[in-house]
Amino acid sequence: MSGSATKGISRGVTLASLLLLAGPAMARDRWQRSLDRGEILVYTRSAARGPEVVVKAVIDAAPERVWRLVSQCNHYRQTMLRIKAAREISRRDSEVICRVTVDMPFPYSDLTATTRAIHRAGPEQYSRRWELINGDYKVNRGSWVLTPYRGDRRRTLVVYRAQAVPKAWVPDWIRRKAQQSSLPDLIRHLRGQLRS
Questions:
Q1: Is residue 117 part of a domain?
Q2: What is the distance between the alpha carbons of residues 167 and 153, in angstroms, rounded to a whole number?
Q3: Per the domain annotation, does 21 fall within a domain?
Q4: Which CATH number does the domain housing residue 78 bear?
Q5: 8 lies in a domain?
């Protein structure tokens, strides 16, 4: 190979590497600008045993205030949306067992799950990660992760992940509606409860 051909290949590999590295960075920059504007970001990721929905948003309240809403399942009928019943069954150290019933639209039956969650409360990160014990789901797992937004302890970056696969068939349009409107509505509902 000639020297100029080698230089061309070398430059091409370097350029491709830079583009690969710039891609995720550019995407992160776009997401950051969207979060700065107060937008609610919702997307779906492929995962084993069904898709996982991810929601990212900023709430103008300290992480510990948001934590009070997401960590107390006894109050989910008031603090969350579409919850027909919620009860904390037990709490031992960081482990919390809850039973929650989701109000499904007619003609579908409501869905109940008993889950085991592990809570980690601050100071830099608050998290609630749950897994299914039993109920009307094949899969029901997810998490709430709360951190100060860009180092500002008066604002919270909320990252919510959920993977829920009911035992009963639920049409795709209901799942899409949950992702496109119900989840952003949930963030707006949380924001409304935390307005000073």
A1: yes
A2: 41
A3: no
A4: 3.30.530.20
A5: no
Residue 149 near residue 56 (C-beta atoms within 8 A): no
Angle subtended at Cα 117 by Cα 191 and Cα 160, rounded to the nearest 5 degrees: 35
Average pLDDT over residues 123-143: 97
Q: What is the DSSP string of the chain?
A: --HHHHHHHHHHHHHHHHHHHHHHHHHHHHHHHHHHTT--EEEEE--TTS-EEEEEEEESS-HHHHHHHHS-GGGHHHHSSSEEEEEEEEEETTEEEEEEEE-PPTTSPPEEEEEEEEEEE-SS-EEEEEEEEEESEEEEEEEEEEEEETTEEEEEEEEEEEEEEESS---HHHHHHIIIIIHHHHHHHHHHHT--
Domain contains 11: no
Which range has the worst mean pLDDT, 31-45, 75-89, 132-146? 31-45
* Domain count of the fold of the chain: 1
Query: What is the domain range of residue 173?
Result: 32-193
- Show the tokens assigned to 30: 């776009």
pLDDT tens, position by position, 20-29: 445 567 677 8
Percentage of the chain beyond pLDDT 70 is 86
